[in-house]
């Protein structure tokens, strides 16, 4: 509980007088700036290095490929990001994608038109999200880990049951179009990702709801005392996360022209990794949508590069894992450095 | 009443009845009686010092007023009318502001965002509260005016409060209570963690709150501050009210013995 030490640290700050170390503040600030820009810098470096290592990497076709492959992770990671902002976690997103795609395929075969199939998939995702949020908040669960783990299992089982354990081929043409090239050599799915990103970014930035998410994530007890409807803010982020999973299902169904209970396997880990690698904080209340997108693209780039360089699939898992550790440690380091800056500013003041 | 100075105008018009009255407050936690039939009153433009040793019931009493706890028996009267305060949001809505000992600041937000947390200026009004659009420029402008009025200087208004010193954070928390305080402000040991100079700044803020016509309840262990600022002092011991007097330099010793019960 980071807030427990609040008054304690102020005592320390007031007591610390460090006139000699004052000139160290610019250095610290530089370190901090580097750390917060870290993911973008690393992504840029990665792209430069890879374009030297493989002649195929920087071709338009390959880049479009990377974006197409990361479309699902990107969209679902944006929902996951909102959940992580409130110190939560949504483990159910992968199974949610599978269930939504199966429900969509079944409704298509039952004769539903394209727009209805899309609506059904998105609504299915949002419904699972609503169950997560409502049980977490009003079931008074200590942590969302438990309820989303349960819905991970339930949604997966339900998808397998409904699809009889097999993929269901066939999707409306409008959905399949998302997987095909649309404009500038980019698949339609990339524009869906951009659209979702624009809407969510605007909502988080300009609406009271967005401000509340950061307040709840920064300090849940204070948010309650300030009269913020914490319960509903929490429910809303799980609904949005589920909704993003539904949109992810639409994209995946478009790419494969099918619904399948095996979709979205380990997607929960990919999306959590994307959010953390991108530079959002697990401690809540820190980060923005750009972090989730950069993290998702970074995962896509790393996978693509390892493929181009003929590195085997098992090793890819290890690389992603190592990157996650580095990302989390740099978050811890960032918090530590911020603490140092604060102490020094207090010293400089008095 | 005719010779009232202009600065206590508020107090003059409203002095007939207390803006906040607590009658017969009783609160139990299991078998522990935290508050036993305690009654207090505060008027506008007045600072009431709330004194007592650790565990005397000061925090419990203020938490009941600010909606964190509910009384088992007794009543809270605002402007003479019995008022139900079921949550912190109720209390704020009724015009009662609290500066908590742990400050309840959002480290990841800027001072301005902290001031307006939970009461953001936003529109249009016909939308549900959470869906309204933030009026960021209005909030920024009001933040600057507020800080200037209170003579609080902060290094940067666009930096998150995590980066600010203990005194600055305390000042932000007190300043936040002034934004919306309409009746009562409760301050729980506002200077406990501060150095001399920073304490002085916060005490000046407390005086400003009073001059604005609020009823101020000040919890503190510092007798100097009580004598300097408080118009009256109420002493609690083991959940009971054991005394009430006007604190002066001469009866400081009397106050201390009331607190420790010797």
UniProtKB/TrEMBL annotation, chain A:
Q: Where are the transmembrane segments?
A: 27-54, 66-84, 114-138, 145-163, 183-204, 232-252, 272-301, 308-328
Q: Which InterPro entries match?
A: ABC_transp_permease
Report the source organism: Mesorhizobium abyssinicae
Q: Which UniProt keywords apply?
A: Cell membrane, Membrane, Transmembrane, Transmembrane helix
The record lists the lineage as: Bacteria, Pseudomonadati, Pseudomonadota, Alphaproteobacteria, Hyphomicrobiales
Pfam families, A to Z? BPD_transp_2
PANTHER family per UniProt: ABC TRANSPORTER PERMEASE PROTEIN YPHD-RELATED-RELATED (PTHR32196), RIBOSE IMPORT PERMEASE PROTEIN RBSC (PTHR32196:SF72)
The membrane topology of this protein is: Multi-pass membrane protein
Grouped into one coarse class, the protein's main location is: membrane
Subcellular localization, as worded in the UniProt entry: Cell membrane
Its recorded name reads ABC transporter permease
């Amino acid at each position: 509980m980071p807030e427990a030490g609040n008054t304690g640290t102020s005592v320390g700050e007031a007591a610390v007088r460090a006139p000699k170390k004052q000139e160290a503040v610019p250095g610290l600030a530089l370190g901090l700036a580097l750390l917060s820009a870290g993911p973008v810098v690393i992504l840029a470096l990665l792209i430069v290095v890879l374009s030297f290592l493989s002649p195929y990497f920087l071709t338009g076709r390959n880049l479009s490929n990377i974006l197409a492959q990361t479309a699902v992770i990107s969209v679902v990671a944006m929902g996951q990001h909102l959940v992580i902002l409130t110190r939560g976690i949504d483990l159910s997103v992968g199974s949610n994608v599978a269930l939504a795609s199966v429900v969509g395929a079944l409704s298509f075969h039952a004769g539903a038109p394209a727009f209805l199939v899309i609506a059904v998939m998105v609504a299915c995702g949002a419904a699972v999200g609503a169950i997560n949020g409502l049980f977490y908040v009003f079931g008074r669960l200590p942590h969302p880990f438990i309820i989303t783990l349960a819905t991970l299992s339930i949604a997966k089982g339900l998808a397998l049951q409904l699809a009889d354990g097999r993929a269901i081929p066939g999707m409306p043409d409008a959905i399949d179009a998302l997987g095909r090239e649309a404009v500038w050599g980019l698949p339609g799915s990339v524009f869906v990702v951009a659209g979702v990103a624009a809407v969510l970014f605007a909502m988080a930035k300009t609406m009271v709801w967005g401000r509340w998410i950061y307040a709840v994530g920064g300090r849940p007890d204070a948010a309650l005392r300030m009269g913020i409807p914490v319960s509903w803010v929490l429910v809303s982020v799980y609904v949005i996360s589920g909704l993003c999973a539904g949109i992810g299902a639409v994209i995946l169904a478009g790419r494969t022209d099918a619904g399948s209970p095996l979709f979205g396997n380990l997607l929960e880990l990919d999306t959590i990794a994307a959010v953390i690698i991108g530079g959002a904080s697990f401690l809540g209340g820190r980060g923005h949508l750009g972090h989730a997108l950069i993290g998702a693209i970074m995962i896509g780039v790393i996978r693509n590069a390892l493929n181009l360089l003929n590195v085997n699939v098992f090793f890819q898992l290890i690389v992603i894992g190592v990157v996650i550790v580095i990302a989390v440690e740099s978050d811890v380091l960032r918090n530590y450095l911020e603490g140092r800056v604060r102490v020094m500013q207090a010293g400089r003041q008095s | 009443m005719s010779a009232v100075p202009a600065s206590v105008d508020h107090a003059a018009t409203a002095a007939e009845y207390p803006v906040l009255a607590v009658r017969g407050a009783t609160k139990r936690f299991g078998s522990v009686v935290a508050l036993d039939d305690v009654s207090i009153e505060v008027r506008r433009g007045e600072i009431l010092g709330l004194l007592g040793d650790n565990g005397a019931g000061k925090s419990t009493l203020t938490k009941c007023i600010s909606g964190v706890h509910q009384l088992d028996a007794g009543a809270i009267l605002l402007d003479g009318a019995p008022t139900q305060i079921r949550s912190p949001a109720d209390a704020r809505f009724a015009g009662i502001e609290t500066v908590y000992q742990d400050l309840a600041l959002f480290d990841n937000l800027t001072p301005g965002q902290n001031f307006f947390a939970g009461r953001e200026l936003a529109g249009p009004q016909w939308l549900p509260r959470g869906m309204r659009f933030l009026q960021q420029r209005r909030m920024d402008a009001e933040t600057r005016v507020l800080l200037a009025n209170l003579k609080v200087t902060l290094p940067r208004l666009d930096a998150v409060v995590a980066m600010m010193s203990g005194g600055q954070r305390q000042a932000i928390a007190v300043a936040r209570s002034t934004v919306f305080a309409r009746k009562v402000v409760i301050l729980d040991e506002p200077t406990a963690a501060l150095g001399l100079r920073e304490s002085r700044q916060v005490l000046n803020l407390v005086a400003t709150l009073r001059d604005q016509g609020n009823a101020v309840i000040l919890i503190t262990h510092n007798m100097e501050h009580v004598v300097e600022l408080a118009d009256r002092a109420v002493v609690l011991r083991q959940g009971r009210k054991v005394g009430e007097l006007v604190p002066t330099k001469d009866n400081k010793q009397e106050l201390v013995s009331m607190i420790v019960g010797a």
